Amino acid sequence: MSHDATRDLERIFAKKSRFGSYVSHWYGEVNAKTLFVIATAGLVATALYITAIRPPEAFPLNELITIEGGTTLTSASLLLKDHSVIRSPIVLRLLVSLMGSGRGVQAGDYLFKEPKDVLGVARTISRGVYGLEPIRIRVLEGATVSSVAHLLDTYLLRFDAERFIAEAKEHEGYLFPDTYFFLPNATEEIVLRSMRQNFEAKSASIAPQIEAFGKPFRDVVIMASLLEREANTTEDRRMIAGVLWNRLERDMLLQVDAAFLYTLGKGTFDLTTEDLASDSPYNTYRFRGLPPTPIGSPSLDSLLSAVTPVHHTYLFYLADKNHVTYYSKTYQEHLRKKALYLGT
Fold first, then answer.
1. Would you say 52 and 87 are in contact if contact means Cβ atoms under 8 Å apart?
2. Do 221 and 337 lie in a common domain?
3. CA-to-CA distance for 223 and 225, rounded, in angstroms?
4. How far apart are CA 306 and CA 292, in angstroms?
5. How far apart are CA 38 and CA 31, in angstroms?
6. Which residues contact 264 (CB under 8 A, 6 or more apart)?
7. Kind of pairing, strands 64-67 and 325-328?
8. Residue 219 belongs to what domain range?
9. How many domains in the chain?
10. CA 222 to CA 238: how far, in whole Å?
């Protein structure tokens, strides 16, 4: 290779070296700027998440949050901030405006079962995803207004037990025991109406038997409420119905221990002499006739048993501790069975 060619190659390599050094320096500067921008963006995003996006520490789980009809987005955002649903009203308003499709905030009761960030809350209130699912509640046969009130008070968030008792007391015995599905925001008015309508529908299904029996419907319901507490099987209910109707026809005291469950919360084996002498109008050991009201909510079987009693001449009955029932036609026979099966 000639001397000139060698110098040309040296110049070429020198230029490449300077270019590579420049590129390396430029890349280094760009990489540093990129890293700075990314780090800054990460810090901003983290700060935004902490201060505005993530759920508050006191996020209200399983509590009703109500947005009234006509509430503006601004007012709703402040309400949600006050209830610790969100951290930033401004961010919520921005997100709802972006995703609301002109609908704004949807009024109603909202229930959150898990914490949501502000994006989830914005989506929820702009679409009206209320989070309300029906709750399955079983009201047992023989339940009183008071026991129904305390049962529902543990499930329904807008239910007032004391108000329900005050409004439903006159409907004692006419609230049908059944399985119900209520939304968490159901009120005492909704519950009372549902249970009354159910009672009317169920009792209507045996209307021909009730009419054929010929007794006042009120008396039938009271009798059915006694049978619900006094017996566990259809056979015993119909037999006991025969006994109690027989006693009423003879103007005898009913002497039904179940009535004390309603007034004193005591069963047969807990009653004292003082209890039997109490002046309560529900004391069927002192006052003739049926109690003044039903003593609980009878089942359809008890209602039907009340109007289809077994026709017999028994006037007494007793049940042992194994719930086996024995029937007698005379008081002497009743005392013998009482001594034999109860040891008294």
1. yes
2. yes
3. 5
4. 17
5. 10
6. 275, 278
7. unpaired
8. 207-342
9. 4
10. 15
Domain stops at, among 203, 229, 246: 203
Q: Does the model's pTM come out above 0.90?
A: no
Token pair of 224 as six digits: 């059915």
Give dist(CA 257, CA 282) in Å, integer.
10
Contact between 177 and 194 under an 8 Å Cβ cutoff? The reply is: no
Half-sphere exposure in the Cβ direction for 54 (13 Å, CA): 10
Backbone angles phi, psi at 69, to 5 degrees: -60, 140
On whether both 122 and 148 belong to a single domain, the answer is no
Which residues have CB under 8 Å from 257's CB, separation 6+? 230, 267, 268, 271
Kind and range of the H or E element at 147? helix 145-153
- Going residue by residue through the chain, which has 344 residues, state the pLDDT in tens, using 9 for 90 and above: 555 544 554 554 455 455 455 445 544 555 666 765 565 656 655 666 677 789 999 999 999 999 999 999 999 999 999 999 999 999 999 999 888 655 679 999 999 999 999 999 999 999 999 999 999 999 999 999 999 999 999 999 999 999 999 999 999 999 999 999 999 999 999 999 999 999 999 999 999 999 999 999 999 999 999 999 999 999 999 999 999 999 999 999 999 988 988 888 655 666 666 766 788 899 999 999 999 999 999 999 999 999 999 999 999 999 888 889 999 999 999 999 999 988 87
Place of tokens 């006991």: 240
Q: Is 330 helix (H, G, I), strand (E, B) or coil?
A: coil
